[in-house]
Write a structure and sequence with these properties.
The complex is a heterodimer of chains A (107) and B (914). By secondary structure, chain A is an alpha+beta fold. Chain A has one domain. Helix content of chain A is 60%, strand content 11%. Chain A is built from 4 helices and 4 strands; from the N terminus they run H-H-E-E-H-H-E-E. A 4-stranded mixed β-sheet of chain A has the order 2-1-3-4. Chain A is globular, with a radius of gyration of 17 Å. Chain B is mainly beta and 914 residues long. Among the domains of chain B are: 113 residues, no CATH class; 123 residues; 171 residues, no CATH class. Chain B contains 7 helices and 66 strands. Chain B has a 61-stranded mixed β-sheet that branches. The longest helix of chain B has 32 residues. The N and C termini of chain B lie far apart (128 Å). Classes of the chains: A alpha+beta (107), B mainly beta (914). At the A-B interface, strand 2, helix 3 and helix 4 of A face strand 36, strand 40, strand 41 and helix 7 of B.
Chain lengths: 107, 914
């Protein structure tokens, strides 16, 4: 019973933390962050939460790009560029993407 | 016997009762005669020294007029007392005019006292004028109404006698150096008169010889005679030569001073003297209209380099009237009054006092201004109004209240400061501005514009009240909002307090609140106490360092007291910056110390997570701006490279930069990298080293390697070793020289390569091992041996590569052998001609291999290959000519990223945040 209560508490804590943290989809739909051709999230509207979210996502993307580059014999930048193409092509309407010229445009 | 005992018991009982009665009577008497306000501490008695009091004070009407220490009462008849130290503070007389009137109507007499002898080792008079004078030794004796007083200090002596008949004499010799080291000369005073219950009066004659200032050559003699009769007095004084004063001033009397008055006022005066000094000359002429009339006129003239003005004055009916006048000190300060100022020549009075003070473009004016005094007590009441401009700022202030020697009272001071870049509203209550602390707690709010334009005009109109806020918006770009309090108080002549300020960094798009808590003190100089703090809260900059940057909180704490002077702040400040976060990179916590040295200073900072050390030095330069040095020493690690296309795996970077900021940044210095490791995924580099000199001027960067840069290995599928080149670049064009690299057992050499360039530049290839070339085949179809070399004239466009007239040839006998395999078999089986050719080439000794290579900038390669040799197995001579045309860029694109990888990304590969 004690263990079950602990699990409930942890679950509630995680739920509350998830509810408080800025969600990526929410951030995209609010126009705070957007996809870029270089494969990384960019900050469209600078808020502390948006920068923190982009930093967290980009750190994990970078690790994935490094792994894929090593596995496939290509460079990190090539992997990131491919990833950027895909992310932009799949961007939801209403979200922001960055053009190669550096402009943020709404899909 | 019992009778005797009974008698003794009775006697003892009476004795006890008597002693008790006497003690009670003495206590009652002491309680009755004990002066109000007299307080003693440390009372003791000893047989050989008598009654002793360590400290005594006497306070009347909240004024402690007597303070003494070490009083010893050594005899009763005559009463003999000694005091080690006595300070007398003149207190404001509650009714001086009444006492004076009584004195002038009757006489003065000293009280009847038992015989006494009082000795004071050091007597001080606590007034501003006598505060620095040494203590005087005084002895006073009285017996049967005969008083004798002796006082001395150094060589100076004063003797006074008042006999039983009421006749007094005074004889004094005063040597001025005994009283102040800057004064020289001697004064002799002789006097005599009477002092009885019904009559008092006398005369004093003063003679001064060789009077002057030690630093000035003038010497003068002065004589004066003062006579008093029942309070009415006359004075006549003359000065035979200019008398030197302090600070280069001397005074000269053109005529004898004559004055007459009573105990409450001056009724007649004749004075004609001039004081001259470095700042100018002050001439004073006063004269009564008639010898017996208590009226007169005069004038005070000020003229010279630092003062000018003329004050006509008259007096009559014991009132001095200053005509409207203006007096200036230097070019900046002027005092004027537009209506006559009437000042009663009396110990008690009141008058309207309306005047204006101007300092540069600031004016202080009075309204409903009234001064009253009674003895040494005085009081001013009215309204002060400040208007004008100072150093480009419009200042407005007003205050209504009262001032007396004890302090201020009234409504708070309200002021505004406004200008193109500053708008402040200040409120300072005066209720706590009272002696001795003169405390205040001013509050202020407003803003400062750091990027104001010169054509902005936000000055207040002259009619605007300080209660109205300056008409600027704190929401303007570049505006620093300002709000806070300034607490100040005085203690022992020093000022101290706390400045608390809240603001916000205007270049932050969000956040950046500033809180400063600065305890300060003003002693001989202004300083900030240890522990003063400045905190900058978290904030975001949208376009910081090419992208949005989240700036974590920064904390600045004074490690020791900071000194402020005209150059700025001096002292150490501990720094802790919680770091920076951007979308693709992070700067961890930075700790260190700022050592402020006026406008300049130095910083020693470290990033513990990166083991990085940075030292900065900045100093102001005479023409404006700053110059200094930056020294960086850090290992290179993956955590630094989140925003880079390559991961730093190892290395050490050192850099030294001399920099200057004067509208733009200019810098020269060097960077040294050792043991550099880079990982770009499939491409890795190891053993990078080299030193690069750096120059930054007008936004242009120039990097020049100091000797060749070296890379031990570069793995691009095959390993390139010992890459060396000298580099010179402005980051837009690159010039490489003395290029050398080892690849495939041979070398690639080029004397110079420029990128981008229109001309064709030769790259030499030599000793390429064909066996290692064959080893690159993923599915080996051919075995090669021998070495090949040649040259490639290359054109390095910004985004293109072209080859014109490239030549490759064998540098020794080559051998070729086709390996059995599916691909070779498939080619052989494709048709009969190919089969014959494959048979001929299956084993080949090549005596001549030559290849001609051309490639256009759009990637089309034309290759013509000629092979001459023989097949030793078939003893068959072979001549093989082959031409090939293919677009290399298309080929590379297809090779670089296989379709399967693209598919993996477009369809399958899960990515964080997708």
């Amino acid at each position: 019973m004690k263990r079950f209560s602990g699990m409930i508490a942890v679950a509630l804590l995680m739920l509350s933390a998830g509810a408080l943290a800025l969600d990526l989809d929410g951030a995209k739909s609010q126009g705070l962050v957007g996809e870029q051709p270089n494969g990384y999230l960019g900050v469209v509207k600078a808020t502390p939460e948006a920068v923190e979210l982009a930093q967290d996502i980009n750190t994990r993307r970078r690790q994935a790009y490094e792994r894929i580059a090593r596995e496939n014999g290509i460079t990190i930048e090539q992997v990131a560029t491919l990833a950027g193409q895909r992310a932009i092509s799949r961007a939801e309407p209403g979200t922001y993407v960055r053009t190669p010229e550096g402009q943020w445009v709404e899909r | 016997m019992p009778r005797t005992l009974h008698l003794i018991r009775r006697i003892l009982s009476w004795l006890v009762i008597t002693l008790l009665t006497v003690s009670l009577l003495l206590l009652a008497l002491l309680w009755l005669v004990w002066p109000t306000g007299l307080r003693v501490e440390g009372v003791s008695w000893a047989r050989d020294t008598g009654l002793q009091v360590q400290r005594l004070t006497w306070t009347q009407e909240d004024c402690q007029w007597l303070k003494g220490s070490q009083l010893r009462l050594s005899g009763v008849r005559p009463l003999t007392a000694t005091l080690a130290h006595l300070v007398v503070t003149p207190c404001a007389a509650s009714t001086p005019t009444t006492a004076a009137t009584e004195a002038s109507e009757g006489g003065l007499s000293l009280p009847r006292l038992p015989p006494l002898t009082i000795t004071i080792d050091a007597l001080h008079l606590d007034t501003p004028a006598t505060a620095d004078l040494p203590g005087i030794q005084v002895t006073g004796r009285q017996s049967a109404g005969h008083w004798a007083l002796e006082a001395s200090q150094g060589r100076s002596q004063v003797q006074g006698v008042l006999d039983e008949a009421g006749e007094w004499t005074l004889d004094a010799a005063l040597f001025l150096p005994d009283w102040h080291a800057d004064l020289i000369g001697q004064l002799q005073v002789q006097g005599s008169g009477v002092l009885t219950d019904t009559h008092w009066g006398g005369a004093l004659l003063l003679q001064g010889r060789e009077l002057g200032h030690a630093a000035q050559p003038q010497r003068a003699a002065v004589s004066a005679r003062w006579e008093v009769e029942q309070g009415d007095w006359t004075l006549q004084a003359s000065l035979d030569a200019p008398l030197a004063l302090t600070a280069g001033w001397h005074v000269q009397a053109h005529d004898a001073l004559r004055a007459r008055g009573d105990l409450t006022s001056v009724t007649a005066l004749a004075l004609d003297l001039t004081a001259e000094g470095p700042q100018g000359e002050v001439a004073v002429q006063l004269n009564t209209d008639a010898p017996d009339a208590a009226a007169g006129a005069g004038i005070v003239r000020l003229q010279g380099p630092d003062m000018r003005g003329e004050i006509p004055l008259t007096w009559a009916d014991q009132t001095l009237t200053l005509a409207p006048a203006s007096v200036s000190w230097g070019d900046d300060l002027r005092v004027s009054w537009s209506a006559p100022l009437a000042l009663p020549l009396a110990a008690q009075g009141a008058t309207e006092l309306s005047a204006q003070l101007q300092y540069q473009d600031l004016q202080v004016s009075t309204q409903d201004s009234r001064v009253s005094w009674q003895g040494t007590d005085w009081r001013w009441a009215g309204l002060l109004r400040l208007t004008g401009d100072y150093q480009g700022y419009a200042l407005r202030a007003h205050w209504q209240g009262e001032v007396d020697p004890e302090g201020l009272s009234g409504e708070p001071v309200r002021a505004t400061v406004s200008g193109d870049d500053l708008a402040l509203t200040i409120t300072a209550p005066v209720s706590a501005m009272r002696a001795p602390e003169w405390a205040t707690r001013a509050s202020f709010s407003g803003h400062y514009l750091s990027n104001q334009s010169s054509d902005q005009s936000s000055n207040q109109s002259p009619d605007q009240s300080p209660d109205q806020s300056p008409d600027q918006s704190p929401d303007q770009p570049g505006a620093w909002p300002l709000a806070g309090t300034l607490v100040a108080s005085q203690r022992s002549g020093d000022w101290r307090g706390v400045l608390a300020v809240r603001s916000r960094l205007p270049f932050y798009d969000q956040g950046g609140e500033i809180e400063a808590n600065v305890p300060w003190r003003l002693e001989e100089q202004f300083s900030i106490d240890r522990g003063a703090t400045l905190r900058v809260g978290e904030g975001v900059i949208s376009e910081g360092l090419a992208d949005a940057v989240l700036i974590r909180p920064q904390h600045y704490t004074a490690s020791r007291a900071l000194r402020l002077d005209a150059d700025g702040v001096h002292g150490p400040v501990a720094v802790r910056a919680e770091g920076l976060t951007a979308a693709r990179w992070v700067l961890p916590v930075v700790d260190g110390t700022l050592t402020l040295q006026g406008l300049g200073g130095e910083a020693a900072l470290s990033v513990a997570a990166w083991q990085s050390q940075l030292q900065l030095r900045a100093d102001p330069v005479p023409d404006g701006g700053f110059a200094g040095k930056a020294v960086l020493d850090t290992p290179l690690m993956a955590a630094m490279s989140r925003g880079l296309p390559a991961t730093l795996t190892r290395g050490q970077l050192s850099a030294v930069l001399d920099w200057q900021w004067q509208d733009a940044l200019a810098a020269t210095g060097w960077m040294q990298v050792n043991d550099l490791g880079l990982d770009m995924g499939s491409i890795t580099a190891r053993g990078g080293a080299g030193r690069v000199n750096l120059q930054l001027q007008d936004g242009d960067v120039m990097l020049v390697s100091d000797g060749p840069l070296h890379l031990a290995t570069l793995d691009v599928g095959t390993t390139v070793r010992n890459i060396r080149a000298k580099v010179r670049t402005d980051l837009d064009s690159w010039q490489l020289a003395d290029i050398r690299a080892e690849v495939l057992g041979g070398e690639v050499l080029a004397p110079a390569l420029h990128w981008p360039a229109d001309e064709f530049q030769t790259v030499v290839i030599t000793r390429i091992d064909m066996d290692r070339v064959a080893a690159l085949q993923p599915d080996p179809a051919v075995q090669l041996a021998g070495r090949v070399g040649g040259y490639l004239p290359v054109q390095l466009g910004r985004d293109t590569l072209a080859v014109q007239g490239g030549r490759l040839a064998n540098e020794e006998m080559l051998s070729l052998m086709l390996l059995p395999g599916a691909s070779v078999r498939a080619m052989s089986e494709s048709n009969r001609a190919v089969q014959i050719a494959m048979d001929a080439l299956s084993t080949l000794l090549i005596s001549e291999f030559s290849a001609r290579l051309d490639m256009t900038a759009d990637g089309w390669l034309d290759a013509a290959v000629t092979i001459r040799g023989n097949n030793p197995q078939k003893r068959l001579p072979v001549v093989f000519n082959y031409t090939h045309k293919e677009n290399i860029l298309v080929l590379l694109r297809s090779l670089r990223i296989g379709e399967d990888i693209q598919r993996q990304f477009m369809d399958q590969q899960p990515m964080p945040g997708w």
